[in-house]
Design a protein that fits this description.
- With about 450 residues, this protein is an alpha+beta fold.
- The protein contains 10 helices and 24 strands.
- The strands form 6 sheets. It has a 7-stranded mixed beta sheet with strand order 1-9-3-2-12-11-10.
- Strand 20 and strand 21 (about 380) form a beta hairpin.
- The model has no long low-confidence stretch (mean pLDDT about 95).
């Protein structure tokens, strides 16, 4: 029996619906759970708040795509406005709007989990067959040379001149044509993501999918039959409509690090740890400007990483240090991450084809919390630690040096006030970056 995708913005809501398993969220976690359980013969229903968009419906128009594919239309942030929290809101979840990086769990991190947290079964040997299947499902492999963007090439050149270790990243694209619009969905359907792999497999095994289905609350969490209260959304996902209740023996929460605890809090489920221990790994973009055109927006936007300062075996945290990856965004998000407005911002964006950019990935410790506002929306509380700020500053120094070594005329660190670096002598200004809330466009 094959399942189906039902759009509740145009279909009648069901009544008296009862299933074995209700999966809330259709990203990599939820879609995989749905597939495995459906293939095992369970009756599975997946609930997704966002729309189902594929092919030409992912039209490369930023205004519409951020509006339709992201939580809070791309405007979700921490309560102090310090960090933009970019989360997917579509069938396939974050895998629809990510940059298709495939990073297997490092052996050192597995060792940390075993030694620090007693997860004795998390060995390289035990996980090897699962890793192999995951990579096969994703069609994962190294990014082909001809698809590496010129911006990433320049980052590679700069890092090699400095003698810094790096790597060409793995990805999960098949048939990529180099549009470079990964952050707003792939109109070529080249991502071997949850929407293209796990969702069809789950449906082939009988799983049903409801899109434009917002879960409001879970009742009777301790009973054999749980009750899930759902509201249909309109075609654009702006307004709630008809409400219905369904029952399930098992409920799987796969709504992400914000959505899952939020739903538990609204439902009065769990213990005092619900919503606590949030990690966001805030990332800072750094932009380099070159005299010659770069056209970093053409090709795969994230393909080379400087790994020299990345640690996999920190005795206290496992993954630590920092990692620098090439990146490029479409004009709208690129402009939003530059430290200039009005005519100066316009002048800077007129050099869009001369830009290359990188993201500084700096792992953090659990220092955040999710709570529920009176209207049920999430409040994301987060404070950057001083230690994290110190590693971020060091990552800025390394990224700037790499771009200068690659021949950049200037490197812009988008802080307030902005820091423009034209030589290594200017690096002294990095020490003054204080990362006060809303003074740097941090991204999670």
């Amino acid at each position: 029996m094959s399942g189906a995708i039902t759009d509740l913005s145009s279909a009648a809501v069901p009544s008296g619906l009862q299933v074995d398993v209700c999966v809330i969220g259709s990203g990599p976690g939820g879609a995989t759970a749905a597939r495995i359980l459906a293939e095992a013969g369970r009756e599975v229903l997946v609930l997704e708040e966002g729309p189902d968009r594929t092919g030409a419906e992912l039209n490369q128009r930023e205004l519409e795509m951020y509006d339709q594919l992201y939580m809070d239309r791309g405007g979700r942030s921490t309560e102090d406005m310090a960090i933009s929290v970019l989360q997917g809101r579509a069938l396939g979840g974050g895998s629809v709007i990510n940059v298709s990086d495939v990073v297997p769990i490092p052996d050192g991190v597995l060792a940390h989990w075993r030694l620090r947290h007693g997860l004795a079964q998390m060995t390289v040997a035990n996980l090897a067959p699962h890793k192999e299947r995951a990579l096969r499902d994703l069609s994962a492999g190294p990014i082909p040379d001809h698809l590496i963007s010129q911006g990433n090439r320049l980052l590679e050149q700069g890092s090699r001149k400095l003698g810094l270790a790096g790597e060409t990243m793995q990805h999960n694209r098949v048939g990529c044509v180099g549009y470079g619009t990964c952050l707003i969905g792939c109109p070529a359907d080249a991502k071997s993501n949850s929407r293209m792999v796990a969702i069809p497999q789950a449906m082939a095994a009988g799983a049903r999918i409801f899109v434009r289905a917002r879960v409001v609350r879970i009742d009777d969490g301790g009973k054999e039959q749980k009750r899930i209260l759902v509201r249909a959304l309109d075609a654009r996902g702006y307004h709630e409509g008809a409400e219905f209740e369904l029952r399930a023996r098992t409920v799987i929460l796969a709504a992400g690090a914000v959505g899952s605890p939020l739903l538990l809090l609204r439902s009065g489920l769990g213990n005092d740890h619900v919503g606590r221990h949030l990690m966001l790994q805030p990332q800072l973009p750094v932009t380099a400007l070159f005299d010659a055109p770069v056209r970093a927006f053409s090709g795969i936007p994230q393909s080379w990483a400087i790994t020299a300062h990345e640690q996999h075996d920190d005795p206290e945290r496992g993954l630590w240090g920092f990692r620098i990856e090439g990146i490029m965004g479409t004009p709208g998000i690129a402009a939003s991450l530059l430290p200039a407005l009005g005519q100066p911002g316009k002048a800077m964006m007129q050099r869009y084809d001369h830009m290359a950019a990188s993201l500084l990935l700096v792992p953090d410790e659990p220092s955040g919390r999710v709570s529920a506002a009176r209207d049920g929306r999430p409040i994301i509380h987060y404070r950057q630690t001083e230690e994290h700020k110190g590693r971020m500053r060091e990552a800025v120094r390394v990224a700037v040096r790499a771009w200068l070594a690659a021949g950049a005329r200037e490197v812009v660190v988008p802080t307030a006030p902005a820091l423009t670096i034209r030589s290594e002598a200017d690096l002294k200004g990095v020490a003054d970056i204080d990362f006060r809330p809303a003074t740097a466009p941090l991204i999670s």
